[in-house]
Design goal:
Blueprint (H helix, E strand, L loop, with lengths): L6 H10 L16 H21 L7 E7 L5 E7 L4 E7 L1 H13 L7 H18 L13
Helix pairs in contact: 1-2, 1-3, 1-4, 2-3, 3-4
């Protein structure tokens, strides 16, 4: 029997280290339609991360961020060199994981609550599958 996997935990891991869960090795994990949606969400967040870190160039700049009553985060960013602005609606965990990745890259501050949310998600994945804990950041929160 395959272990039940927390989809939020899988989301955090796929954002931070997408190659950890290849479809070939973890095919059973992605048979569920919900897991396929999680893969697409993680891919979208990694795309935003690439734009915000300038990998590849040009780099985007966050020009607005608003937390809604339901916990969703509306993130607005601009790529000046290309003359466009994008808006993304992120779940609280997506936003926390995005900031976590940027913090690991030295490009954003990370709140204690965001760090706890991401690391708790990774711990749940580690508990279910025995992987994911190595993704946690050992550096102190600033």
């Amino acid at each position: 029997m395959k272990p039940e996997v927390d989809l939020d935990a899988l989301l955090a891991a796929l954002i931070l280290a997408p190659r950890t869960f290849s479809r070939n090795r973890f095919f059973w994990l992605f048979e569920r339609p919900e897991a396929a949606r999680v893969r697409r969400r993680a891919s979208r967040i990694r795309g935003i991360l690439r734009q915000l870190t300038g990998t590849p160039k040009p780099v985007a700049e966050i020009v607005g961020e608003r937390v809604l009553a339901d916990g969703q985060v509306h993130l607005r960013y601009r790529v000046e060199d290309l003359g466009y602005t994008r808006t993304a609606a992120l779940s609280a965990l997506e936003a926390a994981t995005l900031r976590y990745a940027m913090h690991r890259n030295g490009q954003a501050k990370l709140s204690h609550d965001e760090r706890i949310a991401v690391e708790n998600a990774l711990a749940r994945l580690h508990h279910a599958l025995g992987v994911g804990a190595e993704l946690a950041d050992p550096t102190p929160v600033t």
